Amino acid sequence: MNPHPPFARPVRAFLAPSARAAWVLAAGLAAGTFGTAHAQSGVTIFGTLDLNITHAKAGNTSATTMSSGGNLIPSRLGFRGTEDLGGGLAASFWLEAQLLPDSGALEGSALFHRRSTVSLSGTSWGEVRLGRDYAPTFWNVSQFAPFGTVGVGGSANIIEGWPFGTGGARTFVRSANSLGYLLPRNLGGVYGQAMVAAAEGADGARYTGARLGYAAGPVDVAAAYGETPAKGQTSKVANIGGSYNFGVAKLMGYWLDQRAAGTKHSNWLLGATVPVGEVGTVRVSVAEAKARGTGVGGDGARQIAVGYVHALSKRTALYGAYSRITNRGQAAFATSESPEGAPGANASGLQFGISHNF
Question: Which helix (H) or strand (E) segment is 32 a member of?
């Protein structure tokens, strides 16, 4: 049997060596996915394509660009599958890469840098997961924010050190070389995640953290804590968030605290999503950042954001958003796709785009 699909060689001929390697790996995964589907209880190729036009301004500098990722999830391509081992036991894998569809490139130095995990789970005892995965301290600042962490209204715009963390940590959003445990889904609404990650020689990469939450009916609330030794001290992250769905509107918010090297960076956010008819959703949020400690006292920022999403179908949506950031002291926060912020200068962003999930 010819190991190369008929189309593989002529396509690869036009690719640069690095892109060629990525293409061959993705093609091999796809071929493996379809070739082993009969032995799996579920194998899926999934992803999101999101493109927008963004006009962003920081101080006296502005830029208009085409960017990706304005509607909760950035552009991505993934492969996931589950094998039923019997007796409530299952083995699963998840590989996910971030795409830049405006140029056709991949984001990040690693192909599957968004997530690459293999796991074993049982219906009665939960899931043990290994690999590169989302840290427990990430979820509250994403799940309980109307815009998530992406786009001009994203909560990440005024979080210090995003996406790594403060004090030299690299583990706010994701951790490589991790061993994680997730509670089973039959605990009456209680959910949780714990994780330890090895540094493997990289300063600021070791991580220990956990998250515990409760979701039932209209209520969802969770708290998380994590620590990372970095540059001779320990970076600490704590957050709590929640939401309540009233039907006519879903209110949400979180509080975040980051401490390292004698400094403290705190954030809070309050927001809401409001359904408009059967296909529209209005998003609004106000967020505040404040710094304390040597050299950062008095620094801070406020972000006000408003947006609208219009669903064309269950998978495709048009969206728009606007946000404004008011910086204080030496803070230089800016919206996504903005020119580099200037200390104490305000920033803003206007965005219109389309997203499609598959």
Answer: helix 17-35
